[in-house]
Amino acid sequence: MRQPEPEPQSFDRVLSSMCTEPHPDARAAAERFLATNPGDPATYDAVAELEARAVEGLAALAAHPTPADAAGYVTSGGTEANVQAVRSARNRHGGSDGSRGGSGGARSERDVNVVAPASAHFSFTKAAALLDVELRTVPLDDDYRADAEAVAAAVDDATALVVGVAGSTEYGRVDPISELAAIAEEAGARFHVDAAWGGFVLPFTDRDWSFADAPVDTLTIDPHKFGQAPVPAGGLLAREDAALDALAVETPYLESRSQATLTGTRSGAGVAGAVAAMDALWPDGYREAAERAADNAEWLAGELAARGYDVVEPELPLVAADVPESEFQALRDAGWKVSRTGSGELRVVCMPHVTRAALRAFLDDLDGIRR
Ligand SMILES: Cc1ncc(COP(=O)(O)O)c(C=O)c1O
User: How much distance in Å is there from the Cα of 2 to the middle of ligand 1?
Assistant: First the structure.
């Protein structure tokens, strides 16, 4: 018997996701490039050209000194970009020429460490396990940002990478990027900024986060989050080609000679969607989306505080509030896709699809539950 056509969820009640409804141009472009593979650029040359445009666009957003020459690629997501940043730093650490190649040097991988704030995304835990490096997580300050003193105390000459987060997953915080970069430089480590979620909002703020603000070596910035591109479209950028060269392996059966990506065959849909989204939205559309999201987050934080909840003031458009478990569950039962931080606060990510009307309906339901 023929089954009914499966339908994806609607975004109407999705308040916890860091992805959003793709821009219509991006959706159409993704569909057009569905059967292409940028992992084999000599065969799929049209999508390979598009990927160069995607990297240039992302590099412009992240204020790379020479966007047209920036190194990088469209990853499967922020996880792959972060794993690759750790891998690149590990491979480059400690060699006499600044690089010791992919297979490791005299000391074991475990002797190499990565220093990241406790707010770093769990993709760094995966990276450390996969790459067999030690992950040193350091405490946050009392506003959920990396504590620079704790980072300085944690680095040593085996530190290959220091990580700063620009738009943290749980509270939307931006770490003191310039201070962390200086600590990394002093320690002889590379510096990575994880702006997977924040990267399409931060250009419209006064925060330090980009290649222009600090000596950033690598940076994660995901079109499939605030960039309004379809999944899968993450982004890894590097200041220098050497960061990607340290990832490259030879590709004997392909016409191209080497490959720096983690996956082999990968989605041309992600690449095309990312380019189309940036063509349609950079900069004015992204500015408008960022401003609307910031207004919504401020408004929601105020409304929750007025109801007596402890609210973590939003820095980027993400609101966390201490809502009792029973109310949280009742909201989930009412169909609201909300999630909690590690400490149990309800978190609402004000993505572009989250309208003021949706937030009003959410608060109406919350008020009904409290009665
Ligand atoms: C700051 C940050 N980095 C990395 C990631 C991982 O991204 P992905 O889920 O696309 O792999 C996320 C996901 O939300 C994130 O918030």
Answer: 37
Could you tell me the pLDDT band of residue 102, with boundaries at 50, 70 and 90?
very low
Give φ, ψ of 137 to 5 degrees. -95, 135
How is residue 39 written in tokens? 């992992």
Token pair, residue 245, equals 């060269």
Contact 118, 124 (CB under 8 A): no
Task: Kindly list the structural domains of the chain, giving each domain's residue range(s) and its CATH number in brackets, ordered by start.
Answer: 24-281 (3.40.640.10), 284-370 (3.90.1150.10)
The amino acid occupying position 256 is S
The residue-averaged pLDDT of 329-339 equals 98
Residue to probe by mutation, ligand 1, list 20, 84, 121, most atoms within 8 Å of CB: 121
Cα 124 off chain centre by: 12
Please list, in sequence order, all residues whose beta carbon lies within 8 angstroms of the beta carbon of residue 58, skipping any fewer than 6 positions away.
Answer: 70, 72, 199, 221, 223, 235, 237, 274, 278
Task: Yes or no: say if 72 and 286 are a contact pair by the CB < 8 Å rule.
Answer: no
**pLDDT single digits (tens) 243-295:** 999 999 999 988 888 999 999 999 999 999 999 999 999 999 999 999 999 99
pTM above 0.85, yes or no: yes
Distance 236 CA to ligand 1 centre (A): 12
Partners of 346 in the β-ladder: 321, 340
**Among 269, 151, 299, 275, residue whose Cα is nearest residue 164:** 151
- Which atom belonging to ligand 1 lies closest to the Cα atom of 224? 10
Judged by DSSP in three states, 174 sits in strand
